[in-house]
Structure formats: structure tokens, C-alpha cells
């Protein structure tokens, strides 16, 4: 496919606007909640017009790598918002912010031409981010989703083998359909149960036992309840 003719004047203008927005965002403590709409439009234009050639780069991806050294993923999210939410007024998109708009893209993709943006924009305005994410998830899957958050902590390379092996072993025991977060929770519950078996912390022990009990199939849960009632009744 032949490359489009490079409009140098327009390319210089758009590239300048992108740099202006990125420089402005560095001084603001926000998630591109004001100018991300314009940024997405300009980034899409750079990709279509191949304006990155003006900087003698080899690809659009290399262009993004220079402008977004920390994470190109955000740039692609912002571009996807521009491509899929064109029916939503620019003012409304700026009000709801890019993280909620990213969730709206999921609904727009799933519903296509049937997508009714007005009630979803209203929800995005009214609900906190986590609740809005849950509403989108429930709409798309039909299931109530639990609140979640990402955990970030550093581990040394020498520790990775033990951690990965523990998660893999837990996955084999619990079922391959379980998430790594779920497996980690069960590993921690097992540790707490052992650490507090002597009654040092009854609340922690109760929490861990409750989590482990929930892993059992229904038949084994019934058997377990029957076995622990026996000694109590005889006592």
C-alpha cells in the first residue's frame, strides 16, 4: 500500500499540538480529563497521514514510543475513544474523563449501531469510577462484578521462581479457571490458617478457614459441617 502524500504544513501543526498538550499535562495532576479528546483526534490524524515520517521515524509505533515512553497503551485507549465515541459531544467526553470513556468504548463496540450513548453518558457523570466500571461489566456479562484494584509491589528476580511455582500449584489445585489473584488469596488464607492455628489471632484464623471452606465442593462442605457438629453435640 502506497504511503499518503505528506502534508508538511498540517503535519507540523498537528505534531506541535500533540507536544503542546503533553507538555501541558505534565504540569497538571489529572488523567487527561480535559484535553484528551483533542489528543486522541490528533493522534489518529498522525497515524492516518503518517506524519511521523516528518521526524524520520520508521513507524507510528515508534512515534508513540517517543511521546509516551511510560505507556503507549494509554495513547491507544485515547485514540479508540475518538474512533468509537464520535457521537458523544466533545463537551460531554471532557466532563466524564478518559478512564470512564474507555469503559464506554466497550459498550459501544458490543452494541454497534444500537448503542444509545445518552443514558450511558448520564451514568458516567453520576457514578464514581469504580461503580461505573461495575455497571459496564454487569451490562456486558449479565453478572454482578466485585470491586477490584491493582496491587503494585517489587519482587526480586531470585524470588520469582518460588512465587510463580506457588501460583501454578494453587491453580492446579483450585482449577485452571481461577485467576492468579484468587490463587494468591487462597495461598495467603492457607498461611494465615497455619500461622494462627494455636489461637494467637482467632479472627485471622476464622477468616482464612472461611475462605478455604468456600473452595470445597457442595458435597464436601456438607460432609465437613456434619463432621464438626458431631464432636460438638457429643460434648
What does this structure look like?
The chain has 235 residues and is mainly α. The chain has two domains: 8-141, no CATH class; 157-216, no CATH class. It is 69% helix and 0% strand. The protein is built from twelve helices and no strands. The protein has helices spanning 8-25, 36-49, 60-67, 72-84, 90-96, 98-111, 117-126, 129-141, 157-174, 180-195, 202-215, 218-234. The radius of gyration is 26 Å and the shape is elongated. The model has no long low-confidence stretch (mean pLDDT 82).
Question: What would you call the structural class?
Answer: mainly alpha
Q: In percent terms, what proportion of residues is strand?
A: under 5%
Quantity of strands, as a count: 0
Tell me the domain tally: 2
Largest sheet: none
Span between termini: 83 Å
Structural shape: elongated
The SSE string, one letter per element, is HHHHHHHHHHHH
Mean pLDDT: 82
- Total helical elements: 12
The percent range for helix content is 55-70%
Oligomer: single chain
Low-confidence stretches: none
The gyration radius over C-alpha positions equals 26 Å
Tell me briefly what this model is.
With 235 residues, the protein is mostly helical. 69% of the residues lie in helices and 0% in strands.
Topology summary:
Elements lengths: L7 H18 L10 H14 L10 H8 L4 H13 L5 H7 L1 H14 L5 H10 L2 H13 L15 H18 L5 H16 L6 H14 L2 H17 L1
Task: Spell out the key features of this protein.
about 240 residues
Amino acid at each position: 500500500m502506497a504511503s499518503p502524500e505528506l502534508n508538511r504544513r498540517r503535519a507540523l501543526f498537528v505534531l506541535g499540538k500533540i507536544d503542546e498538550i503533553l507538555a501541558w499535562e505534565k504540569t497538571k495532576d489529572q488523567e487527561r480529563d480535559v484535553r484528551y479528546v483533542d489528543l486522541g483526534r490528533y493522534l489518529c490524524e498522525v497515524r492516518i497521514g503518517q506524519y511521523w515520517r516528518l521526524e524520520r521515524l520508521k513507524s507510528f509505533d515508534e512515534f508513540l514510543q517517543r511521546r509516551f515512553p511510560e505507556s503507549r497503551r494509554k495513547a491507544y485507549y485515547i485514540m479508540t475513544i475518538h474512533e468509537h465515541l464520535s457521537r458523544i459531544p466533545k463537551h460531554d467526553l471532557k466532563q466524564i474523563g478518559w478512564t470512564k470513556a474507555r469503559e464506554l468504548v466497550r459498550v459501544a463496540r458490543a452494541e454497534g449501531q444500537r448503542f444509545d450513548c445518552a443514558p450511558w453518558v448520564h451514568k458516567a457523570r453520576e457514578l464514581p469510577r469504580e461503580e461505573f466500571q461495575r455497571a459496564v461489566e454487569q451490562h456486558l456479562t449479565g453478572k454482578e462484578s466485585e470491586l477490584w484494584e491493582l496491587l503494585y509491589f517489587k519482587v526480586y528476580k531470585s524470588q520469582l521462581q518460588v512465587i510463580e511455582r506457588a501460583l501454578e500449584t494453587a491453580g492446579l489445585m483450585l482449577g485452571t479457571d481461577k485467576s492468579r489473584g484468587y490463587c494468591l488469596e487462597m495461598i495467603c488464607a492457607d498461611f494465615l490458617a497455619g500461622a494462627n492455628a494455636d489461637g494467637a489471632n482467632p479472627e485471622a484464623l476464622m477468616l482464612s478457614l472461611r475462605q478455604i471452606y468456600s473452595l470445597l465442593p457442595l458435597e464436601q462442605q456438607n460432609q465437613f459441617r456434619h463432621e464438626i457438629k458431631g464432636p460438638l453435640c457429643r460434648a
